[in-house]
Amino acid sequence: MAPNDSAQATGEATDPGAGRRKAARYLVPVAVAGVAAATIGLVPALAAAGDPSLPKISAQQLIEKMAASDTQQLSGTVKISTDLGLPGLGSLGSFAPKGGGAEKSASPDAKLTELASGTHTLRVAADGPDRQKVSIMEDAAEYSLIHNGDDVWAYDSGANQVHHSRHAADGAREHGKKTPEAGIPTTPKALADEFLKNVDPTTAVSVDGTAQIAGRDAYELLIKPKQSGSTIGSVRVAVDAKTGVPLKFTLSPSAGGKAVVDAGFTKVDFSKPSASTFAFTPPKGAKVTEDDGKRGDHGKQTFKPEQGLPGGLGSFGDAKNTKVIGKGWTAIAELDTGGKGLPKADGNKGGDAQKFLDSLGDKVSGPFGSGTVFKTRLVNALITDNGKVYVGAVTKDALVAAANSAK
Length: 407
Description:
There is one protein chain. By secondary structure, this protein is of the alpha+beta class. It has two domains: 5-308, outer membrane lipoprotein receptor (LolB), chain A (Clam); 320-405, TATA-Binding Protein (2-Layer Sandwich). It has helices spanning 18-38, 59-68, 108-113, 169-173, 188-196, 351-359, 396-405; strands at 5-8, 73-82, 118-127, 131-137, 142-148, 151-156, 161-165, 203-213, 216-225, 232-240, 246-253, 261-269, 287-290, 320-325, 332-336, 362-366, 369-374, 380-384, 388-392. The strands form two sheets. Strands 1-8-9-10-11-12-2-3-4-5-6-7-13 form a 13-stranded mixed beta sheet, covered by helices on one side. Strands 14-15-19-18-17-16 form a six-stranded antiparallel beta sheet. It is globular and about 60 Å long.
């Protein structure tokens, strides 16, 4: 079906507020990395033959419909497929400490990171801001994260381990009615929200036809950067025509090829889930780890994109003299690590180690000096030999240009 209408992301689309938009611009590269690494890309939901015929709607009207959606109850199945061009992060588990301890508990920290690559099936349920459940279905086991009132439970059936927390509930309530996922980006809505708050004059937004997702009629909202140099080609959100709830989210790279993130329901039901869905009692014999709230960021259940990637990967909170070069989709964060570049292996004993370090990135040079660019299909980072870091959802050339301009 031909596009219905289009609107540039100025006053014609949404205006989340100048202060919020300014902050969001800074978070573009980090939010993109964080959301992608923390959990989700979903394989395309099966669509029926032929697109549904729906009344015309403008981009502004569709965004307003999404914002006005008051859906708080749902359940369904999603599939996760994320392709950042990285090796499976689940393999990092082989480096985990042996034996017991908090590191070996069912805490979501490492488990959610596994979803940054490969294909996974999730079952989700929500009943307002105080009850949510996400279950990761595995071949012979299941991992569930359950928020029920003041309790947050995580259960790994394969290891028969439980992680329990009570201090995350307040953070979940901050999201109110608009975010029944309680901050865990496990649905297309959570992903779409991250991108819609970054809508600004550097963005083109249009309604690009219709689709049927999980048996429901939907409009397709297309979000594209106007600027060149971004690694993001487009973001497509399928919005339920009746409820305004995003049913599918697809992030395609500017370089083409397979989607980096593809998020969609394969089954969805907007009726109220049974209260038993959110009830949990540790199974007999399970090892239970109580989170006492003293473990810092690792004890939090609510993912915050500004923290960078889970587990400390890509976290920039300790960097000095942080600033932003550019704006919108090509914004680049410049960070100062204090003069330390990449570690150098000993010339006599560490030849193989140095070759390994060098193989992880591309050597670059320019007026700024020299450095190494580390690449994924979405977020790239330049680390200079004098300890400066430039990171964003931009191309290698854009990073080098930013380093040269900041010299």
